[in-house]
Design a protein that fits this description.
Keywords: Cell membrane, Membrane, Transmembrane, Transmembrane helix. This is LTA synthase family protein. It is found in: Cell membrane. With 643 residues, this protein is of the alpha/beta class. Helices cover 48% and strands 10% of the residues. Strands 1, 3, 4, 5, 8, 10, 11, 12 and 13 form a 9-stranded mixed sheet that branches. The radius of gyration is 29 Å and the shape is globular.
């Protein structure tokens, strides 16, 4: 009897120790507690490694975890739950680490590189244009071949080690029982679902507030610094959804003042040619740098003002979006790319309007038609055709890319051959970064500066490309002077070039890229202005424009062409009397008065409110404004987005 009692007393712990659901060998005590603690420890090490890679600063990473209720500890718990849940799916204890660790550490590395070169953290929407990144790899390999080789070797070695470890783990670690897998899923799934439910930054969450997870969506750099890479990345997942502005309704749209302007064009319709020149800027603005001869004499002589770019060193499509639509990125989620996310149906643009007035709307870009989704977007914008690398005749290269001279030849040839008035939107390619030394065999300029040889040669490559772009403008202007048809030419750079270390060595910037939130309006202008020329063969260059957002370019271009439109010259014309720069972090009046962080203020200028309401209505809403502001789209109204 005593013997049977003894056996009964030992039955429960013996069952737990021998249960293969724990994934541990028989004889070990407290396997469930041990498994949980080890999962937490693994999650802690992994989250620390992620933050260390992203931040590149050991002390900063340690300080992120010092206080017990900071988001770092919440992230550790979430990662532990993910590991436990995946273990249940895979059927082996801790095997989930072989999936989660490579994936998250790779994302952290990519995030660090993006922040280093472009100044922005990694967003979920960045994967919408992963194909563009791969298309630029040949340029990156040419710039840093040894780095590229090391990355390839590292990837191959890492994958080989991962496959070997995976197979060894499957052989050495006991399989989990059905009961053990179910127990893990019962724990992990509800808790993970709870964490997902509090990630919607647009709604208040008491739990999120208690955990000190504060979505700082207006300042993404601070958002990632405060909440950590993983949680900030998760908070940005809903960014593809654009919520209606407060007060949006048909009555709110009806209350917006209608400008006393109708759509009209001159009897002799002028050709309009817009050239958005890749990374065009004045490199002589770099401190202590002398470039001889002047790389941009023609732009300097004809300059009308400056274009205030909402981006730095990249994201060309966002500048293009504003320049063609007259809408602003300031009213869209931070980090979003309208070309990739929001333009999915016919959207009003300069091409839509001018085509309705008898123009042939044409787009030209010597790159591929899928880059930035341009092929689909240009069709939705109303262009008649888009000539890209796939449909253009073979174009002469200058350096590794199609030359500006070849693109200029194509513009002139097509304009001369057209009996209809033409609207051209051309995006150059030649001066795309990176700017590897010795990019051009016979440079015609010299760079003098107290910087490293690599930086001087990189800057020389950039200056040569800028000079070619300047000569392209000169050729267009000289050609237009001989034409009998009125011709308007607009020329501007999309953003400052990604010169990286050159900025640091010359003292132009503290880091490789400019910060999103500048210390002062003057610094924002210095780091975001590119040269702007708007010129007519009838009236010469427009003058004294100052710095303007690309959203206001349609107004200035059509005004120079003698064309009017309810939105592009009416509404934007009235808006330009209030502001000449409308940026996510800055408003700038014609008199130069600045309003930083305007979006965080309780009261927003009614003019900005109306601008935002109109844009939302035409892009995502019910298009109540179309008959009065975009009459050319009324017969083509389609179902609104359900983003």
């Amino acid at each position: 009897m005593a013997k049977s009692y003894k056996r009964a007393g030992k039955a429960a712990p013996q069952f737990l120790e021998d249960d293969p659901s724990t994934g541990y060998l028989p004889g070990r005590r407290w396997p469930v507690v041990r498994y949980g603690l080890i999962s937490l420890a693994i999650a802690a090490v992994l989250v620390f490694a992620i933050e260390l890679i992203v931040r590149g600063d050991f002390a900063g990473t340690v300080s992120f975890f010092l206080q017990p209720l900071k988001p770092g500890w919440t992230t550790i718990v979430v990662f532990a739950l993910i590991l436990i849940g995946l273990d249940a799916v895979l059927g082996r204890s801790h095997q989930s680490l072989m999936i989660v660790a490579p994936l998250t550490l790779s994302l952290a590395f990519v995030g660090h590189q993006k922040s280093h070169y472009l100044g922005d953290p990694l967003y979920p929407t960045d994967f919408l244009y992963a194909r563009q990144i791969f298309a630029l790899l040949p340029l990156l390999v040419r710039d840093r071949p040894m780095t590229a080789l090391a990355m390839v070797v590292g990837i191959v070695a890492g994958l080989s080690l991962l496959v070997y470890g995976w197979r060894m783990w499957r052989r050495k670690v006991p399989a989990l029982s059905r009961k053990g897998r179910l127990a893990r899923l019962t724990l992990a799934v509800p808790l993970l679902a709870f964490f997902v439910s509090i990630m919607d930054y647009a709604t208040f969450s008491w739990t999120r507030d208690r955990l000190q997870i504060i979505p700082i969506m207006w300042d993404q750099k601070e958002n990632y610094a405060s909440n950590g890479f993983a949680l900030a990345f998760a908070l940005n997942v809903p960014m593809a959804h654009v919520s209606a502005p407060p007060g949006y309704s048909d009555k709110a749209i009806a209350a917006i003042a209608r400008p006393d302007v109708t759509a009209s064009v001159p009897a002799e319709k002028p050709d309009i040619i817009i050239v958005m020149s890749e990374s065009f800027w004045d490199p002589t603005k770099l401190p202590g740098v002398t470039i001889t001869p002047d790389p941009i004499p023609n732009v300097r002589a004809l300059r009308s003002g400056s274009m205030f770019s909402p981006e730095f060193g990249g994201m060309t499509a966002n500048i293009e979006f504003e320049a063609l639509t007259g809408f602003s990125n300031a009213f869209l989620p931070a980090g979003s790319i309208p070309y990739q996310q929001y333009v999915r149906t016919p959207t009003p643009s300069l091409a839509t309007f001018l085509k309705s007035q008898g123009y042939r709307a044409r787009a030209i870009h010597p790159g591929t038609n899928w880059f930035w989704n341009r092929g689909a977007v240009y069709a939705d914008f109303g262009f008649n055709d888009f000539k890209s690398e796939e449909t253009l005749p073979p174009m002469q290269k200058r350096g590794p890319l199609a030359s500006d001279a070849a693109m200029t030849d194509e513009i002139i040839s097509e304009a001369d051959a057209s009996e209809e008035p033409v609207f051209f939107f051309a995006v150059s390619l030649q001066n795309h970064g990176p700017y590897e030394p010795n990019r051009y065999y016979s440079p015609t300029h010299r760079v003098q500066a107290p910087i490293s040889q690599w930086a001087r040669e990189s800057l020389l490559s950039y200056a040569e490309g800028s000079a070619d772009a300047d000569r392209g403008l000169e050729r267009l202007v000289e050609w237009a002077k001989t034409r009998s048809r009125p011709t308007v030419i607009a020329f501007f750079g999309d953003h400052l070039p990604p010169l990286g270390p050159v900025y640091v060595e010359t003292g132009f910037l503290k880091d490789n890229v400019a910060p999103r939130k500048e210390a002062s309006p003057e610094a924002a202008l210095e780091h975001h202005e590119t040269p702007l020329v708007i010129w007519s063969n009838r009236t010469g260059p427009a003058e004294h424009m100052g710095a303007v957002s690309p959203a206001f370019l349609p107004y200035h271009i059509l005004k120079t062409a003698g064309i009017s439109h309810p939105y592009y010259t009416g509404f934007l014309g009235e808006m330009s009397e209030h502001y000449r720069v409308v940026d996510r972090n800055l408003l700038l009046t014609p008199a130069g008065e600045a309003t930083p962080d305007w979006a965080r203020q309780k009261e927003i200028d009614p003019a900005i409110r109306d601008f935002r309401l109109l844009q939302y209505d035409m892009m995502f809403g019910k298009r109540h404004a179309a008959p009065d502001f975009f009459p050319e789209t009324v017969d083509k109204i389609v179902a609104a987005h359900t983003s």
